[in-house]
UniProtKB/TrEMBL annotation:
It comes from Shinella yambaruensis. Belongs to the zinc-containing alcohol dehydrogenase family. PANTHER family: SORBITOL DEHYDROGENASE. It comes from the Bacteria. Keywords: Metal-binding, Oxidoreductase, Zinc. Its cofactor is Zn(2+). PROSITE patterns: ADH_ZINC (PS00059). Residues 9-345 form the Enoyl reductase (ER) domain. InterPro entries: ADH-like_C (IPR013149), ADH-like_N (IPR013154), ADH_Zn_CS (IPR002328), ER (IPR020843), GroES-like_sf (IPR011032), NAD(P)-bd_dom_sf (IPR036291), SDH-like (IPR045306). The keyword Ribonucleoprotein does not apply. This is Alcohol dehydrogenase.
Length: 347
């Protein structure tokens, strides 16, 4: 089927790709016609660098994992989903018998098969077969575009859950990219009274400021810790979410943190970063890490449907499927003011 294929680093093709052997419908699977696929930072990183960490592209691979679509076929043992249902899909399929999965930690199952993570193919193609258990029906008031945002939103909701947000907490989100902004929305929905968001892109910070009780901070012009300590009467924030993946962002997480505060690392760090144990110790900081998400897709869909979270302002551009290569070239250039770009497949 015609697919967006990463042939090798910096080389993309939109071409027919043989994947039929992987598309056999099992008894508890559904076949989905893809409608909308978001461009994730990890997709772009595979394109620009050929891999990240232990995940290296060694053979042509189809990109894309943030997706929504329509069920067009169901396996004989599928219940709860029928042909014609509009759905979004959780892209990671764990080993149901692994120890991590049995403990409920299926996102860190070493055997998890995750779309567009080598060697598993992604979903920038017309159809995909997926387990019904990881496929979620959409309410009528949730669009395909919003549904394709459930995957990144799940990261933010998982992070807010790990942070144990309490009503009235004040948080800082470092980085105003897609993950940073969905994390800010998740923190507000979980009960934060106010969220500071830092970045160097004024256009993204302007978007952030319109999302709710968010205070933008441009770290090229402002001292982040000083601004926060001034605004909190010297106390600091209860939670810091590091979403930038930038070494300076990661190194400074304890400076604006209050005593007993929590830090959640979300952004991927390409190289080891400095970790100031002394600053963490004197605050008795609790530090958490996030790897994707677990058990949150239904929560995300419910919050989109209720209006508790609105991701529509984060969708800043879309492309046709035929424009997929151009879309990735633009995304790789990181134009200012762009948050989430999406690709629309033919219907």
């Amino acid at each position: 089927m015609k697919s967006l294929v990463l042939e090798e680093r910096l080389k993309l093709s939109l071409r027919d790709f043989p994947i039929e052997r992987e598309e056999v419908l099992g008894a508890r699977d559904v076949r989905i016609k893809l409608h909308t696929v978001g461009i994730c930072g990890s997709d772009v990183h595979y394109y620009t660098h050929g891999g990240t960490g232990v995940f290296q592209v060694k053979a042509p691979m189809i990109l894309g994992h943030e997706a929504s679509g329509t069920v067009i076929e169901t396996g004989p043992d599928v219940t709860g989903l029928t042909v014609g249902d509009r759905v979004c899909m959780e892209p990671g399929i764990p080993d149901p018998n692994s120890r991590a999965t049995r403990l409920g930690l299926y996102n860190v199952d070493p055997a998890v098969r995750f779309w567009a993570t080598p060697p598993i193919h992604g979903v920038l193609r017309p159809t995909v077969v997926h387990p019904a258990d990881f496929t979620f029906k959409l309410p009528d008031n949730v669009s395909f575009a919003e549904a394709a945002m459930v995957e990144p939103l799940a990261v933010g909701v998982h992070a807010a859950t790990k942070a144990q947000v309490k009503p009235g907490d004040i948080a800082l989100v470092i980085g105003a990219g897609p993950i940073g902004l969905v994390t800010a929305l998740s923190a507000l929905a979980a009960g934060c009274a106010r969220v500071f968001v830092s970045d160097i892109d004024d256009a993204k910070l302007e978007i952030a400021a319109k999302l709710g009780a968010i205070v933008p901070v441009n770290v090229q012009r402002q001292d982040l810790a000083a601004e926060i300590l001034k605004a909190t009467n010297g106390w600091g924030v209860e939670i810091v979410f590091e979403c930038s993946g930038h070494p300076k962002g990661a190194e400074g997480v304890f400076d604006p943190l209050c005593p007993g505060g929590r830090v959640v690392f979300i952004g991927s760090q390409v190289h080891p970063v400095q970790y100031d144990v002394g600053k963490a110790m004197v605050r008795e900081a609790r530090v958490e890490h996030v790897f994707r998400y677990a058990h949150v897709f239904p929560r995300c869909v419910a919050m989109l449907s209720s209006g508790a979270i609105d991701v529509k302002p984060l969708i800043t551009r879309n492309f046709s499927f035929d424009e997929s290569v151009e879309a990735f070239e633009i995304a790789a250039a990181a134009p200012k003011g762009e948050v989430k770009m999406q690709i629309l497949l033919p219907q």
